[in-house]
Structure formats: structure tokens, C-alpha cells
Amino acid sequence: MKKVLIVDDEKMFLRTLCEGLSIHGKNYDFKIVTANNGRQAIDILNSTEIDLVITDLRMPEIDGFKLIAYISSKFKDLPVMVMTAYGSYNIEMEIRDKGILHYIEKPIDFEDLLKKILSELKAERRGRVKGMNLATFLQIIGMEKISYTLTVTRGKDFGNLYIKDGELIHAETKNKKGMEAAMDIITWDGVTIDLIDNCNFKGNTINMALENILLQAYKTKDELENRKKKLNKRKNEKQINLVDSEKINEIINFINSNYNSSIKSLNIFSLLDKKIITGWNINNELCGIYGDIVNNLDNILDECGFPDIDKYFLIRFRNDHLIYIFPLGDIACLIQINDINVPLGFIIEMFTSKLSNTNLKKDYQ
Amino acid sequence: MGRKLMDIYALVTKHKGFKGRLRLAVRTGISQTKAQTMPDSSEAISVFERAAKEILGPDISLNNYGG
Amino acid sequence: MKAQKLMEAVETLKGDLEGSLIATDIWSVNQGISLAGYNSQPKAVALFNKVTDMINKTLTGSNFPELGKYYILDLVDEKMVVIIPMDEYQWGILLNSQTAPLGLLLNIAIPNAISAFEEALIG
User: Fold this and answer.
1) Taking the domains of chain C in order of start, what are their residue ranges?
2) pLDDT tens by residue, B40-55
3) Residues near C93 by Cβ (< 8 Å), separated by ≥ 6?
4) How far is CA A69 from CA A62, A134, A238, C42, in A?
5) Residue B67: inside a domain
6) B touches which chains (3+ CB pairs under 8 A)?
7) Is residue B62 part of a domain?
């Protein structure tokens, strides 16, 4: 049978909570274990296998924050829910989507609490949020408007967060300070948190509300993860594209014979490392720059939910020089045209249909 | 009609793109469409050349812009 | 800037492109706000403001000239976007790539659009 540990220093409240849960949850298979403070809770955790912890924050001896810090270092997989009287609907809505929020507002709504417990207990270990992450922890400190100095450790990295009356006033890592350090530390995963009562930093290097810092940090983290995912997707594509030089030469000859050396350069290059695979009159610098542009463009369109690039991307410069890019998965064809007399509509139609219909890619065996 | 003025428009667009073209229009108060239809008066040419010089900067010469 | 002439510029584009035009906006780069448009798309305005800025920064960061005329993106779902940077303003045009006559767009619609915008700018 699964066990839920509830920690609160108000004995009456604890009793009411246990009774309420046993009435509402009589048909469910879990057992309630209680503790009156953080010290007792730690003893129970070290002697009994617990599946979920629900804790109050303000308690004598070891308070809820220190208990959570302890759990984050010793029982990283154990989910924690916090009971607080200072819920913030807006931030809950924003952060709950990311699966990192675990708090229950006081006064307790038994049905809601039961629902949260059951959902947490039912969730597969793999699929659920492990322990309580730093962002959630900071969010709760912010709600409670208290002062702490947090030392956050992730492997060999460590950093300090200075929180005064629930606001983050300074952060530092080995080589960063202020907001930059805060943005870095907040998004670390698998951290251990050590708490020192009170904030021992004088001054203020950060002037943004804690909840906005959290949202900003997670937005940045999401963006980075999307980029990584995209890059990995490309790297994992089983097909390695090789280019059929014969077909490329055919295209170059066709254009040059029709438009008398209008093409300045033609480059087939990798979008992953911007290295040129083949081409004619190749231009490494151009491929480096436009490789970055295509990758960034791809990411911006993706983040905003706009349709992806389909066939081509074309830039016409002030001197009527043209850059025509035809992305083909992890490679791209870049053509530099420097003749204003070449009809643009024809160029687009001709390149696009030639490149679309020609098997430029050969399957790598 | 307005051949020299159009040449100045072409030179500015070549070196500074649409941005330059629009700046030339704002500074002279004469759009490209209008320049096409007005005569190449010495007064208009002088206004255009002055504006073009400012937009193009010292590195780009206005000499022989028509040629 | 004459708002009436700006709307006329949009109308000129609509007339040139007929049914192929899905949406268009002329916006101020600094504020990212549309000044005139047809079937206005505020999200696309913000998006392409960012894209143009990214392209210009990448180009100038490598000592290349910034965007001078326009750029075109052929997108999935049979859509095409044309962005014309115009100093402090930008003009974005969303088209149906299947029906948009490319020659007409590049040789007539865009030059007409620029001329009409120029008239609006002078006032």
C-alpha cells in the first residue's frame, strides 16, 4: 500500500486533515502517515518508504523549506506538495503546464486534495515530476515572502541565490553575477539545495519580480531545448545526404549557357556544421552566414507556430544581387546570382523545379 | 523627362536599397514616380544631389551617375 | 505619414494581386505595430520584425550589407511571405503561393507597392 506523509505542526489541523481524507478517500488504497515538524518527518523518511510528502512550511525545529531542501538532496525522486495560504492563480496557471507546481492552498478543499494525491500516486515514476524542483521551491519562498540564502549545487556547478522578503535580490555562480547568474541557476535540473536562514547579501543587483524571473528563465530554457531537439532530430536522421555532383553540374551548365555566367557561386553545404559538400566557385563565408540565418529562421518560425520553410528562401539585395537558398533537410543549396538581367520569376521557378525534381540526395549505404 | 533625377534615384537605390530610396523621397519631397514626370531643372538636380550625397556618404561618388 | 495614402498603398497591392493576397501589414519597426493592413496579423508582424532584425544583425555582424530590397519565403501550406524592409517601416505580404503570379508580384506588385508607400511617406 502506498504511503502519504503529511507534515504540519498544528495537531488539530492534522487530525482534521486525516479524518477528511479518510472519509473522502475511503475507497482508495493509500495510507496516511503524519509528522508534527520537519525533524519528525526526516526520521520517518529515513525509516519508512514514503510515496508522497505533503508539508506545511512554517513549523518549529526544521521548517518546511529545510525539509524540502533535505528531500531534494536525499530523496530526489520523491514528490512533494506544499500547503500554503498564499497561492497565486496566475503563476499556477503558467507554471502548472510545465508540470513543476505542487502546492495546495489553505483552507484545504478535501476533494481537490484527494484528486491531487491520487493523480500523483497513480503517475508512473518515469512520467511524473521528480521531487520538487528549484523553480517551484523559489516560487513558494516568494509566496511566503521570507528571506533565505540558497546554495544550489548541480554536480560540479554551484551558485548562490539571495532572497529577501520573497524577492530575489542577487545571484552568483563561479563566473556570473546578478540576473545572468539567476537565469542560469534557476533552470538547472537535479539540484541539491542548502538553506541558510536570512539573506546575508547587502544591496540589490536584480530588479525583477521573482515570478517574472522564473517565467523568463523557463521560457529561455524551453527555447534552448527546442533548438537542441531540432538539432538532434537532424543528427539522428538515418539518411546521410550525399550530393550528386553530376546533377549539380548539369544545373550550373544549364544556367550558364542560358544566362552567360550569371551565377557567381553555387554551394551545397551542411546546415549542421556549415561545411561545403560540393559546389561551383564555392564561398565558405557565405555558407557560414546563411547557414546561421536559415537555422535561426527555422527556430523563430517554429517557436511562433508559423509554417516551416517549404522550398526556398530568397533575398534580393540593394544592388539587385540575389541569394537563393533551397534547404533539403540537413543540407542546403545556396546560389549567389549577380546579374540584374536574369528574370527573377524565371530564376525561382527554374531553380525550384530543377532542385525539387532532381535527386540531389543519394541514400548512403 | 526627369532622366537625371531618375539616375540619382537608381544610384541611391543601388547603394542603399529601398531604405535609401525612401530617404531620398522624404528629403527631396519628390517621389520616384513624380521624378519620372518632372523636368531635369538645375534646381531639382541640385536638391537631389545634395540629398543623395547625405544619404550615400563620402565614400560613394555622384560623378557620372547617369553613365 | 498620410494614413489615407497608406491605405491606398494597401489597396493598390490588393488590386494587383487580386485573390492571391491572404493578408498584408505595414508596420513601424520600432513599435512593431501595424499602421495599415488587410486582414491584419499582429503575431506575424511581431514574428517578421524579429526575423528581419535577426537577418540584418547576422549580415552586418559579418560585415555584409544589410537587407536592401526584400526577402521571400516559400512556406508549407501553400503560403508565401514577402517582406520589404523600408527604413523605419516594414511591409509584410502573405500570399497563396499556388495562385500568386510570381512575375506579377515581383515586377509589378512590389514596385507599385513601394511607389505607393513612398507617396504616403512624403504625404
Assistant:
1) 3-122
2) 899 999 999 999 999 9
3) C13, C17, C21, C24, C81, C82, C83, C84, C113
4) 11, 9, 43, 44
5) no
6) A, C
7) no
- Is A314 close to C72, i.e. CB distance below 8 A? yes
What superfamily would CATH give domain A1-132? Response regulator (3.40.50.2300)
pLDDT under 50 in chain C at which residues?
none
The whole-angstrom distance between A192's CA and the closest CA on chain C is 38
Give the model confidence (pLDDT) of A213-229 as tens digits: 887 787 777 766 766 66
The CATH fold assigned to C3-122 is Beta-Lactamase (3.30.450)
CB C87 within 8 A of CB B23: yes
- Is B43 within the bounds of a domain? yes
| Segments forming the whole domain that contains residue B37 | 3-56
Task: Please report which confidence band the pLDDT of residue A231 belongs to, taking 50, 70 and 90 as the band edges.
Answer: low
For domain A242-362, the CATH superfamily is Dynein light chain 2a, cytoplasmic (3.30.450.30)
Task: Please choose, from the candidates A327, A324, A348, A347, the residue with its C-alpha nearest in 3D space to the C-alpha of residue A335.
Answer: A324
Domain with CATH 3.40.50.2300 in chain A: 1-132
Chains contacting C (3+ CB pairs below 8 angstroms): A, B
Residue C79 to residue A345, Cβ atoms within 8 A:
no
Position A147 pLDDT exceeds 70: yes
Contact A293 C47 (CB under 8 A): no
For the stretch A69-125, pLDDT in tens is 888 778 877 888 888 665 554 444 443 444 334 667 767 777 888 888 888 887 654
Cβ separation A293–C55 shorter than 8 A: yes
Residue of A296, A315, A333, A337 to mutate, interface with C, max C Cβ within 10 Å? A315
Per the CB < 8 Å rule, is B14 touching A317? no
Instruction: Classify the phi-psi angles of C65: left when phi > 0, otherwise alpha if psi is within -120 to 50, otherwise beta.
Output: beta
Distance to chain C for B46, nearest Cα, Å = 19
